[in-house]
Amino acid sequence: MRILALLLLLLASPLSAQLIVPQVQPATSSPLYRSPSADAASAYITAGQDEPGYRAWYAALPLRSIQVKAFNDYLTTYEVGGIVPTWQLLRTATSWRECGAQPFEVPPLVDWPNVVQTLRYIRDYVVPAVGPVEPVSAYRNPSLNLCAGGAPQSAHQDFHAVDLVPMQPITREHLMSTLCEAHLRRGSDYQVGLGFYAFLRFHVDSTRFRKWGVAAVGEASPCRVTIAHTVTSTSPAVRLPSASSSAAPATPAPSAPQTALPQATPAVDPLAPTPTPH
User: Fold this and answer.
1) Which of 34, 69, 162, 196 has a CA 20 to 30 Å removed from the CA of 176?
2) Range in 177-181, 221-225, 269-273 the model is least confident about
3) Ramachandran region of residue 130, left (φ > 0), alpha (ψ -120 to 50) or beta?
4) pTM for the complete prediction?
5) Measured between alpha carbons, how far is 196 from 204 in angstroms, rounded to an integer?
6) Which domains does the chain have, with CATH numbers?
């Protein structure tokens, strides 16, 4: 009777409950291992630079919790916290393991202001254009940048640059066309460099107005439009006026914190360009 009762209970249960099979995740050393997230960005993230890898890195040294909190507080102070998860901005280079480097690194304090303008542009014109994005590489110390094949003057070395991938499905052509259109409208105001790599990975920095890696797009794409005004200054601290605005003196960027604690929140940030309606 007990066996019969169990059989009847099984037949009465939902089919979905009967077909649950445990999922086996490949070992972290396997090239098939990916972040548990289901978004498109996971294909660009190596084992060790996913969330479990970050948690392990974070817990390895007590000082890291203090550094990460100070960096997060600094971003919040200048109203660029939460645009992307703070921990993702600490990713170094995709080839960190081959280079014997760390998968994550808190940039030097003096470089923290450099990413502020880059994040503003991501917030104001990248996310509205292509949806949520995930950083796959940001600060790279000079040794890692050299090993990873970065340009000698790479903007990643002083934390001006962030490499990103979209988290929602999108074609490469649409990604490039959409981002180029926004860049042509407002990139000069933010002094943004926009670059494209293979597949869906792209680069944003705030050193000077330029773009590259657009040879694969069609003749009608806004990426084909020549940028006539190229700013030679390498400082992201200067906001140049847009073509429609009157000339105004340059304003310095947020200063680097002198200690591990964030500075007071300014009442008004004159550096931030005013977004136009989308």
Assistant:
1) 34
2) 269-273
3) alpha
4) 0.71
5) 9
6) 37-224 (3.30.1380.10)
pLDDT in tens, 215-241: 767 667 788 776 644 333 333 333 333
- With contact defined as beta carbons under 8 Å apart, do 191 and 206 qualify? yes
How far apart are the C-alpha atoms of 141 and 36, rounded to whole Å? 28
Q: Centre a 10 Å sphere on the Cβ of residue 164 and count the other Cβ atoms it contains.
A: 26
Q: Taking phi first (over 0 means left), then psi (-120 to 50 degrees means alpha), and beta for anything else, what does residue 249 get? A: beta
Closest CA to 177 of 219, 142, 124, 237: 219
Rounded to an integer, what distance in angstroms lies between the CA atom of residue 252 and that of residue 271?
Answer: 7
Q: Do 278 and 244 form a contact (C-beta atoms < 8 A)? A: no
Phi, psi of 197 (to 5 degrees): -110, -165
What distance lies between CA 214 and its chain's CA centroid?
20
CA distance 65 to 86: 12
Q: Are 140 and 151 in contact (CB under 8 A)?
A: no
Evaluate if residue 75 carries a pLDDT over 80.
yes
Strand order in the sheet with 202-205: 133-137, 162-166, 202-205, 193-196, 210-212
Q: Which of 44, 61, 115, 63 is nearest to 86 (CA)?
A: 115
Predicted pLDDT of residue 275:
52
- Measure the CA–CA gap between 187 and 242, rounded to whole angstroms: 9
Instruction: Kindly give the pairing relationship between strand 202-205 and strand 210-212.
Output: unpaired
The helices-and-strands tally (H runs, E runs) of the chain is: 8, 5
For the residues 10-33, what does the mean pLDDT come to? 36
